[in-house]
Give the backbone structure.
Amino acid sequence: MSYNLLKGKRGIIFGALDENSIAWKTAERVHEEGGTFVLTNAPIAMRMGSIKQLAEKTGSEIIPADATKVEDLENLVEKSMEILGGKIDFVLHSIGMSVNVRKGKHYTDMNYDFTTKGWDVSAVSFHKTMQVLYKKDAMNEWGSIVALSYMAAQRVFPDYNDMADNKAYLESIARSFGYFFGKDKKVRVNTISQSPTPTTAGTGVKGFDGFIAFAEKMSPLGNATALECADYTLTLFSDLTRKVTLQNLFHDGGFSNTGVSQEVMETFVKDQE
């Protein structure tokens, strides 16, 4: 069902890799709700994924950009405004990567060059993106910027590794930069802390299937899907949430406020019998 929530709004969507990704689902839903946008991803990710299919489906253009390089982001923002015909109303930052996770390095034995690279891609790129948007005065008033996070920023998930640190830093950037973006430009900045979701990035984490199964049993409403996250993101892009900013918003079926569930307790009781 479409509500025309984003009719006439223009944006940039980072990170659509394949049809499993939240950014992909968000792009499809934005298109259905009347929004127009430019798709972007790192050149290497574009070779790996199928972003061209998404561009054709949504009538969008693609601008390759390495989000860790300010000059790439400047080119992205300038060209996006040219293509879309004006300032930007919404931005989705859906980027995350840990080289330590990919290389199987334990959190107590990290390669710090890997750590720095992952931190730059997963968190600092969000600051760089907003700084470019801010300096170029590229956002319309009451625009909305959203980044995707995970609850490991607040609680320990042992195998999430240094991505937990990256997400904590990402959320801090959203608050700190969001203050100035709100005060000076009337732009909202928020993060969404999503349920564990079987995306290409998520499934690279050791024990991810266990994460999903545990969260499903812990959450009163069950895990939120990528499509449901896309729907939630749309509400933050819309005019219905104009005064929501500096928030880390949990979209996890209630997991974040559940101490223990009956299903999990029953599992432990069975183990003791």
In short: Residues 112-135 form the longest helix (24 residues). Residues 150 and 240 are 24 Å apart (CA to CA).
